[in-house]
Structures are given as C-alpha cells and as structure tokens.
Amino acid sequence: MNIAVLVKLVPDTEASLKIGDDHRYISTADLNFVLNPYDEYAVEEALLQKAKHGGTVTVISFGGDEAVKALRNSLAMGADNAVHVKNPGGIDLLGVAKTLAAVLKEGRYDLIFAGKQAVDDDSGAVGPMIATLLDIPHVSSVIKLETEADKLTAEREFEGGVERFELTLPALITAHKGLNEPRYASLKGIMMAKKKQIEVVEAEPVPAKTEVLRLTYPPLRPPGKIVGEGREAVPELIRLLKEEAKVL
Amino acid sequence: MDILVFVEMRGGKVRPAGFEAISGARKLADVAGGKLTALLIGKSLDGLTGEIEKYGADRILLAEHPLLEGYTPEGYREALVAAVEESGAKIIVMTATTMGRDIAPVVTAKLDAALLPDCTSLEYKEGRLSVVRPVYAGKLIMNLAATSWPVVLSLRPKAFLATEREGVTAEVSRLEVDLEGKIRAQLLETRAEAGDKLDVTEADIVVAGGRGMKSAENFKLIEDLASRLRGAVGASRAVVDADWRPHSEQVGQTGKVVSPSLYIAVGISGAIQHLAGMNSSKVIVAVNKDPEAPIFKSADYGIVGDAMEVLPAMIEAV
Lengths: 248, 318
Ligand SMILES: Cc1cc2nc3c(=O)[nH]c(=O)nc-3n(C[C@H](O)[C@H](O)[C@H](O)COP(=O)(O)OP(=O)(O)OC[C@H]3O[C@@H](n4cnc5c(N)ncnc54)[C@H](O)[C@@H]3O)c2cc1C
Ligand SMILES: Nc1ncnc2c1ncn2[C@@H]1O[C@H](COP(=O)(O)O)[C@@H](O)[C@H]1O
What we know:
Chain A is α/β, with parallel strands linked by helices. Chain A has helices at residues 37-53, 67-77, 93-107, 126-134, 187-195, 234-244; strands spanning 2-6, 9-11, 33-35, 56-63, 81-86, 111-115, 138-147, 151-158, 161-168, 171-175, 198-202, 210-216, 225-229.
C-alpha cells in the first residue's frame, strides 16, 4: 500500500505565545516547535497500515525550513520517505491544499492521512479540501479505522454520537486523538532519520483568498477570588454564582 | 449580497448551533443586504419549515433525498453546491461543529472560495467581510478577511445568539439533488448516545473533573452535579487517557473548546493545554485541594478543598 501522511510543525502546546511586531504573525523567537499532535496519530496509523498491508510511508510537509523538523520527527517514528514542499509565500489554506494536492497526485497514493486539525490555525480544513481537489472520498476526525485490501471502515464522533463509514481506496482519512497511541521514536530511528535524504519540491505561489488583518490577545480575565475552604464555602459560592455572577 | 445558511440537523432535529447560524446569517444579511436562504438537508423536512422561519430566513430550501437521511460529505456537498447555484449566494454560512467543520472545506474547495472557519463574530463593512476567530486553541485571537468571493464561513457553536424574529414569512421551495454514483464514503450506521445527552460544546453549564477525582467511580459526583444543573460533563486529558471518561468529553487543546456560561473545574490542575479549551467560559469555578494549583489563576471563584467533600455539598445546595 502506497501511503502518504501530511505533517506540519506547530508551536509546542506548552508554550505561551507572543505576537510579532507586525501584529499579524506570532513571534517565533525562543519558541519551541513540535510535530502537530494530530499528525502524530496520522503518522502512527500510516505505520500500522504499512505493517499490516506492506508498502511505503511517505511524509509530506509544506512550509519553510522549519518543515524539515516535522519530516525528521516523522522519519524517526519510522516513515520511509520525506518530501519538503517549499513555501513560496503569500499562500492561504486553500493554496496549501492545492499545492499539496498537486504533489499527492504525482505520488499516486492509495491512502492519505492528515491530522484532524493543525493546532496553530485550528482550521481542520486542509484534509477535506485535498480529498475534494483530488476527487477521492474521505472521512475526517477518525477515532477508529479498519482496513481490508481495498476497503476501509472508519468511525468518527459527532456531538451526541458516533457515525461509521465505508469507503474504497484511494481515500483520505484525518486522524483524531483516540485512533491509536503514537509510538516514541527510538534512538536508532532518530539516527536513521538524520541521514535520510529529503526530497525538495519548489511550489508555485497560489493567490490567497483570505488575509490576516491582526492578531490580538484574548481579554484578560479579572482576578478571581478564593471563596473559602472545604464544604463550608459552598453556600457562599452558590450565593455568588446566583447573585453576583448570575449564572445559576 | 445574497446569503445561504446551511442549517445543521441530526436525527431529524435542528441542532442548537443550526438556529444560531440562521441568526448569525440574518444579522449579516441585514447589513450586507440581499436575500437569506436557509438550506435544510435530509429525508423528510416538511415539518421543520415553521421553526426555521421564526429565525428570519427569507427563503427556505429543502433538499430531500433518501440518501440524505444521514450525513455523508459527498451527499451533503452535492446538496450544498446545488443550493449555492440555485440561490446565487456569495456568502455561505455553516456551523463549526463536527459536521460543519467537515463540509465547509469541501464546499470551499468545490467553489474555489475563501474559507473563514470557526468564527466568533462577523463584520461586513464597505463591501468587505471580516471575522474574528480564536487560533492556537484560544491563546490568540485572529481578525481574518476574505479578499475574494464567494466566501464560506463556519460559526462557532454558542458564539452567536439564536433569536426569533416577529412577523417573518419565508417562501419554501424544493431542491432537486442528483446523487447517482456520487456517494463513495457511505454511511453504515449512526449510533446516537443514549438519552439526548448534551454535548460539552453545546451545554450552558459544564462540570469537568480531572485526576483529582481519584477514580472513574467518583465521577458519579461530577455526573450528579452536572445533571442537577442541566449541564454536561467535561474531563481533562489525564482522565480520558486513564480511560475514566470517553474522548468525547475531553476539554482542551487536543479535545473540545467550550465556552459555557459556567465551567466548574474539579480536581483539575489547570495545565495550559486544558485552559486553552475553557478559558473563554463566562464564569469559571475551581475546586482543588492545592491552593497553589494554576487553575485558581484562571478561576473567578475558587474553593480550596477535597472534591469528595465539596461536591456532595454542592449537589445538595443547587
Ligand atoms: C500535546 C498535548 C496536548 C494536550 N491536550 C490536553 C487537552 O486537550 N486537555 C487537557 O486537559 N490536557 C491536555 N494535555 C495534558 C495537560 O498537559 C495536563 O497533563 C492535564 O491537563 C492534566 O490533567 P489533570 O489536571 O486532570 O491532572 P493533574 O495535573 O494530575 O492535576 C490533578 C489536580 O487535582 C488536584 N487534586 C488531587 N486530589 C484532589 C482532591 N481530592 N480534591 C480536589 N483536588 C484534588 C491536584 O491538586 C491537582 O491540581 C495535553 C498535553 C500535551 C503534551
Ligand atoms: N503546511 C502543511 N504541510 C503539511 N500538511 C499540512 C500543512 N497544513 C496542514 N496540513 C495537514 O492538514 C491537517 C489539518 O490542518 P489545518 O487545516 O491547517 O488545521 C494537518 O493536521 C496536516 O495533516
């Protein structure tokens, strides 16, 4: 099975973020970056499918030089090949999807994995966009996947239940937490990943249809108060919630 | 500027976020001018038009087909694209729910449109549409504008108020959708959770428990308090990973982002990834036995104490 995984580097979820001087992007100075957590599930699932069906796992990342780290991390987990699609600048979500779709089309993959969302822009858009552009079926936010030779069943959660789909390959799946337990890269994996050749693709700019006007910090919460200790504090808490906060 | 709003339904009923989307779209239509068309997709929809009308749509479009009874990205895509054509809409509004977040990018790619996802407010000024949306799990707020038409928007649940309008009537028409050979990702089954359980993202009150609850059994207390308050149960990642609670309840950066009027965090330390998911709640209450727990910095009201002692007292008091 010829499998592709789309991976992105994002700020560490631990990090507090600073807005850059342009007020449109974050300041990346002193910021630690990690593989997007949902993409870890995607890479893990690709490796599990390869173990089951054979084949190769190619990880693909669109971005500047930082994207290489996402690729190395995925290679260290066990991916076979890596492709760095260089960001020509000025691209928005649909532009990223179009660029990646063109690269994926060349690769003739049977199964494509992406994350449910990148925890930076939180759009959750690139996966379903690519499936649409490639004209292949997809299921997003998958928490359970079963595969046979060329058939998949995929489950996902919605607000209030679970829905299960059946589809045939080629197909695209976006991975949600719960799909699997991503493995840690072994020392050997990390060493091998350092030596692997990363294929570079130069992308053409795609005119953006959206424009970031401004980034701001969310309003600060006013300082709260400790109502008291233990069960004795409960009546006063309830009174405050009713009379002061008016939420009960 | 004509607007199409896709009104989300599940199990034959309009979701709360669906009504919010009509109201959000109505306000936009008032400013942008033009007609507001509400699209319903399903199997038999006649009984629902009255409900929809109240929220102020000028037109209601019914896309009925046996294959549209349950959600599939390809089936709903066909209905949506046909509705955009029929209505001539340049702005397409949806809900930023599981369904909306799946279908909005599909429709965007199909129409070669601009996507403004997961918006918490909208502005139309001098022919330009811009939105506010939380990014980095709410750590920052982004103002994002569309620079071309059409535009697909999804509205975050609970960010827009569903408000009824007086004396509005809508013209109802039907939309033919050809689904022959279109649906490749087929829906095998939908399992609704037992007894109309409220989702954390939809609840007005959330009672969430963390590792401080000590065991899965002790979550009975969280459930009791939530049910007394007609709220939903939330959970930290630690307790989801420990299999005490289902994934669907996880709040935070890799879980759900919620903004209820009241969020009660019990035995949750307040890690940055958890805060990211609930920091936009209107009022936050923390119960934690450690007075130094970071959650108290984000809480409006705190009680320092043992959850096993405080929760029963709270259940009794409400
Ligand atoms: C990539 C990534 C993504 C993540 N995403 C999420 C996410 O989406 N959501 C999330 O929640 N976390 C997330 N986390 C995990 C997060 O960092 C914390 O580990 C987690 O939130 C801790 O859960 P907790 O507060 O329940 O447990 P703990 O940190 O163990 O805190 C338990 C708290 O309970 C208190 N306590 C103990 N006993 C009692 C008692 N008897 N009565 C009252 N209080 C008591 C303690 O004082 C303590 O403050 C993520 C982490 C990573 C790395
Ligand atoms: N620049 C990128 N390079 C590779 N994959 C990406 C990129 N951006 C998004 N993706 C993939 O699409 C998923 C959803 O991203 P998003 O739509 O940005 O939330 C991610 O989890 C990745 O799998």
